[in-house]
Amino acid sequence: MPSGQWSFFTEYAIYDYINHRFKENQLYINKIVDSGKHIYNTKQLKVVELENINDSFFPDVKGIKIKGDSKYKRPAEIKFLTSSFKYHLEKTDDFQEFIKNNGCIISLRHDKIPTSLHNYNIDVFQLDINDFIGYSRENFVRLLNRQINYHNDKKIWLMYAPSERNFYKGTSEVPPAYLSGRWCPSNKLNNFDLSKDDKVIFINTKGSSWQNVKKKLNSDGVFYEKWLLNEIFICTVTSPIRSRKEYCDILGKDIHEPLWYDETIEGKKDRRVKNGKENVIRWNEVFEFRVDTRLSNLNINLNEFSYENKVFHKLVHIILNVFADSTSREIDQETYSLFIEYIAKIQNYKTNNLLPLMNEENNLNLNQGNIH
User: Fold this and answer.
1) Contact at 8 Å (CB) between 238 and 196?
2) Domain range spanning residue 56?
3) According to the lineage, what is the superkingdom (predicted)?
4) N or C: which end of the chain has fewer CB within 10 A?
């Protein structure tokens, strides 16, 4: 990408450029790589259909149609550089679906195909970088203000808390995450995704593996009847998300010092814990949180819950995605409020104590000594 004043822009600036140029009927891209093979005589191709880019969830573009493209309408992931595409390394269901639907990469500048991505015969398109620079200059103040103010509206995130791993398990030296108030999302999030004062809802289920839930859903179109919502932790993010190195530097810790159970000697010996490669740091981002409310022994049948209404049906699919792929998903305010009201109704909790963006302090002060 260009150096100097442009280098601090995030991909949201590219989203803005793409959305704006398409609305003007002036969005053109060049095909650089066709099914994994470089094209040397490229020409500009016009984008004729585009689903507006509204968030940074993979893939960024849910549907794009390019004039003269034989693969019709398909998803696309936006990157400053092609080499920064990493989703193929995670091998999630989302990536497999992306490949199945002829997903492509749209880069501001193409440098190289990432290692092992050649196996997928992916297409790469490149934006007009000079046009992007011109657009950024014209809209510099607006784009800058948007990045500064991007997180005025607080977000609500859903994350999974597996019973046998870091969220619940710990040692005398490294407490479980729900006590330490320290977590690393499995998928890549940055400060434009997750910010201080956002809400994180950690969810724990029981009664079935995610494989059985998916098998039942794929074969019968319903969720496995023994799959239950067991427990949720409603939390507030209390620090920016940081790289592990920055986080450890601030606390005066060595970067290899265990932060979670699976990094301890005990955790590495625990057969129930999936460990990464030896001497390779698996968890590279850190944020801190405060537990506002813990709701246990819910025993909500998620199949029955999914039939309550369309919002809950979609929410159960999101819970399954978070469960199966150990990922993070944002939910909107309406979904969260309806979810909490439902729990309050069947469990006789006080709804007012559970609604988001509450200002109460955590009397347990679990994050004492942590950084903010």
Assistant:
1) yes
2) 4-149
3) Bacteria
4) C
Per-residue burial over 295-317, b = 16 or more CB atoms within 10 Å of its CB, e = otherwise: beebebbbbebbeeeeebeebbe
149, 172, 199 — which closes off a domain?
A: 149
Q: What's the length of the chain?
A: 372
- pLDDT tens digits, 5-40: 334 466 788 999 999 999 999 999 999 999 988 998
H helix or E strand, kind and range, residue 34? strand 28-34
Looking at the fold, whether 133 and 197 belong to one and the same domain comes out as: no
Is 114 found in the same domain as 33? yes
Query: Which residue, chain included where needed, has tokens 């932790």?
Result: 233
pLDDT single digits (tens) 275-291 = 555 566 788 899 999 99
Strand residues in 82-115 grouped as ranges (E): 104-109
Same domain for 198 and 291, yes or no, is: yes
| Tokens at 140, concatenated | 């510099």
Residue type, 327: T
In CATH, what number is assigned to the domain containing residue 240?
A: 3.10.590.10
Question: What is the distance between the alpha carbons of residues 265 and 172, in angstroms, rounded to a whole number?
Answer: 12
Q: Quick one: how far is CA 238 from the chain centroid? A: 18
Res. 149: pLDDT tops 60: no
**Nearest partner of 177 among 187, 163, 196, 191, judged by Cα:** 163
In angstroms, the Cα distances linking 258 to 17, 130, 177 are 42, 46, 12
Domain boundary among 130, 149, 168: 149
Task: Count how many domains the chain has.
Answer: 2
* Dihedral Cα 357, 360, 363, 365, nearest 10 deg: 50
Q: Which of 244, 243, 273 is nearest to 261 (CA)?
A: 273
Task: Please state the pTM of the whole predicted model.
Answer: 0.59
Residues 26 and 115 reside in one and the same domain: yes
